[in-house]
Write a structure and sequence with these properties.
Blueprint lengths: L1 H4 L4 E2 L8 E9 L5 E8 L5 E5 L5 E7 L5 E3 L7 H5 L7 E2 L5 E2 L3 E4 L2 E4 L9 E2 L12 E7 L2 E10 L10 E10 L3 E10 L3 E2 L3 E2 L2 E2 L13 E4 L1 E5 L12 E2 L11 E2 H5 L4 H6 L3 E6 L7 E7 L5 E7 L3 E5 L5 E5 L5 E3 L4 E6 L14 E2 L5 E11 L2
Antiparallel strand pairs: 1-31, 2-3, 3-4, 4-5, 5-6, 7-17, 8-11, 9-10, 12-13, 13-14, 14-15, 15-31, 16-30, 18-29, 19-22, 19-24, 20-21, 20-23, 23-26, 24-25, 25-31, 26-29, 27-28
Amino acid sequence: MKRAMMIAMTLIAAPTLAATASIAPFGTNEKGETVNAITLAIKGGMKVVILTRGGALAEVSVPDRQGRLANMVLTRPDFAAWDRGGSFNTLIGRFANRIAGGGFSINGERFALPANPETGITIHGGAGGWGTRLWTPRLIQSGSTAGVELSLDSPDGDNGFPGAVHVTATYALSDAGELRIDWRATTTKPTHINVTNHSYFNLAGPGQGTVDGHQLRLFASHYTPVTDKMIPTGETAPVAGTPFDFRMARAIGPALRTSHPQLLLARGIDHNLVIDGPAGTLRPAAELIDPASGRRLLVSTTEPGVQVYTANNFNGSQPAADGRLLRQSDGIALETQHAPDSPNQPAFPSTRLDPGQVFTSTTVFAFGVVK
């Protein structure tokens, strides 16, 4: 975190009431279950809205350099769209990103996962993963911090994954403008865990265009190249001389329009960047700035990587809350996580979790403005 603090940031601040947390019904799903919306608010007007359906971020309203509030995440027009929206802005598990080969083996035992029949790939834990589940909330409020602990029980055999897993994801919003996510999980059998938040950010706000003009900095000197099926080759390659070199902040748009073979495979950026510094320690992963509004997002994490995704599959079939149809690069996801296909890639950091162990992970989204 010391490195993160070296990056100058004007944090959101204004005298008002202490941080607050509240909960209210948001809608009723097809099972007749009530989906709630948790609202976290701090001084200066910043507000975060989290849905118990998938732990989705429905709103992250942040002021610009003139103090004007706007939502920093792409969103949905109504409850029905959220309820059928897959993993849009949600918490992801049991395994974020891709697993190849239809599953994995632990101690010689093979575990088959629901996979695309054409590719044999499982993505985001398979259909009906954690991003579609109803999480149980517990509000947290203490002085300058407001939050919610979301908990979920994933049974043994859930989507083919072994072990009964109990998981909590705690969102905490502080008066410093930081939204922190702390994960904790345990299992009854050896299994694999890889989690993330899959929010799409656009710091300009709704209806203000793509993120092409946003300045992106990645604290990553290497990335993991992929095959034509978007599965890592097993290599860890330097970003130098590639479109993935954001070690110095630069606009996103020009990088998306190069003819690099990896970009052609993904139709944009959809790659795991290996974060510099030791995994397990909170350190900066990505910095995003919208020059027009002055808004800045600094992402720090304990995870070894960040999947940078420029919404390449947005094709106009999904409406946003303002009625616009979402298209490529309308947002960018900065998914802190382990590398894709880690259960089948022995050279990558392990995602295995055994009974008696506690999985933990922390990611911090720090919002502010540049002058």
